[in-house]
Design a protein that fits this description.
By secondary structure, the protein is mainly alpha-helical. It has helices at about 1-20, 30-40, 55-70, 75-85, 100-125, 135-145, 150-155. Helix content is about 65%, strand content about 0%. α2 packs antiparallel against α3 (about 55-70).
Amino acid sequence: MRLLICVLLSLSASLSWAAVDVREFRNDAEEARYRALTEELRCPKCQNTNLAGSDAGLAGDLKDRVYEQVRAGRSDQEIRDYLIARYGDFITYKPPVRGSTLLLWWGPGIVLAIAALMLVLRARRKPVKGKPLTPAEQQRLQALLTDGPESESRS
């Protein structure tokens, strides 16, 4: 039984070791750039997870690309531009302001402004007045108010 437990524990330890991302960097600055870029860029498959937090195969490939480019001495902006050219503005959490992304940047503000305008216009609108009651309707209403619904069923 003890042998079985030892074997299972050693296997589980080796599996967790396989999940660790091991990369060799020349210095701490290079590693910091790599970490910052993988946290800043979005995984195209996972949608709302950055590359650093994604376990998807595509994210692994993109981490390899970022690593290769950092090691090649490319600047952060060159790496971003390369990935944007390949995957579009979606890969960044902060897409640039241009014609194709104006709705993304200004859309929520426009929707809020329209909603506020509608609320103001609705609050300013005068209530609709109905036509006055006829004398017969007024008498029936008065009977209902004084006697209750029983008087209606009796008549």
